[in-house]
Amino acid sequence: MVVRTSSKRIVRILLVGDRGVGKTSLILSLVSEEFPENVPNKAEEITIPADVTPEQVPTNIVDFSLAEQTETELDEQIRKASVVCIVYSVDDEESIERISSYWMPLIRRNHPDSTCPVVLVGNKIDLIEYSTIDNTFEIMEEFSEIETCIECSAKTLKNISEMFYYAQKAVLHPTAPIYSVEKAD
Ligand code: GTP
Fold it and tell me: Alpha-carbon distance 30 to 33, whole Å?
C-alpha cells in the first residue's frame, strides 16, 4: 500500500541572530524592495503566497527580537520553524563567533535530532571589502544541519531574495545527510 502525504506544506523561515545584525531590515527590504531608514524592533509575521515564491510553496517569514520577546518565546519559535536563518553582521566578528557558541547549541537543544536546517546569513556586506565565507567553513563542518551560507546587504538589497530562496530550498531540497554514520551504533 502506498501512503501519500499531502504535498502542500508551509515553509516557516525564522530569523535569529545577535542584536543589531539586521534581521528586521532584511525582512523589510525583501518586502518593500527598499532599505528601511527607521526599523521597528520586530517585523510582523509575513506570509508570501505560493504563486510568488520560486518553489511555489506558501512561506511564512518570522522575525525575532529579544527587545520584545522572551527566551521562552525564542525556544518556542525555534521549535516551530522549518528552517532557521542565523544572521550575523560581516563587520562584527563576535556575531560570527556566537553562531557556534550560542545559536547552534540553542537550535540543537530545541531540535535534538538535528532535523531543522540552518542557513547562515552574513548581512551588511556593503560595509566591508572582503568576504567572511571562509570563516564559516569550520562552523559548517562542525554542524551538519547548516545547509549553506550567503552574504547579503539589506541596505543595497544584494542577495536579499536569494537569501530567502536558499532558506526555502534548505527545507524543500535539503542536502545535509539524513542519516549520520557517527550517530549509528
Ligand atoms: P534587534 O531587533 O535589536 O535584534 O536588531 P535587528 O537584528 O533586527 O537589526 P535591525 O534590522 O534593527 O538593524 C540594526 C541596524 O543595522 C540599523 O541601524 C539598520 O539600519 C542597520 N542595518 C541593517 N542592515 C544593514 C545593512 O545591510 N547595511 C548597513 N550598513 N546597515 C544595516
Answer: 5
pTM of the model: 0.92
Q: Quick one: pLDDT at residue 184?
A: 46
CA distances (Å), 22 to each of 39, 41, 122, in order?
Answer: 9, 10, 10
Cα 23 to ligand 1 centre (Å): 7
ipTM score for this prediction = 0.99
| 137 within 8 A of 143, measured Cβ to Cβ | no
Cα–Cα distance, 15 to 125 (Å, whole number): 18
Instruction: Look up residue 64 and give its amino acid.
Output: F
pLDDT for residue 3: 39
Distance of CA 35 to the CA centre of its chain: 19
The pLDDT, as a whole number, for residue 52 is 85
Q: Please report which helix (H) or strand (E) contains residue 62, including its range.
A: strand 59-62
Please tell me the distance between residue 67's alpha carbon and the centre of ligand 1 in angstroms: 14
Q: How many CB atoms lie within 10 A of CB 98?
A: 17
- Cα 115 from chain centroid? 14
- The answer to whether the CB of 62 falls within 8 A of the CB of 13 is yes
- Work out the average pLDDT over 35-50: 94
Predicted confidence (pLDDT) at residue 98 exceeds the cutoff of 80: yes
What residue ranges line ligand 1, CB within 6 angstroms? Answer: 17, 19-25, 39, 41, 65, 67, 123-124, 126-127, 153-155
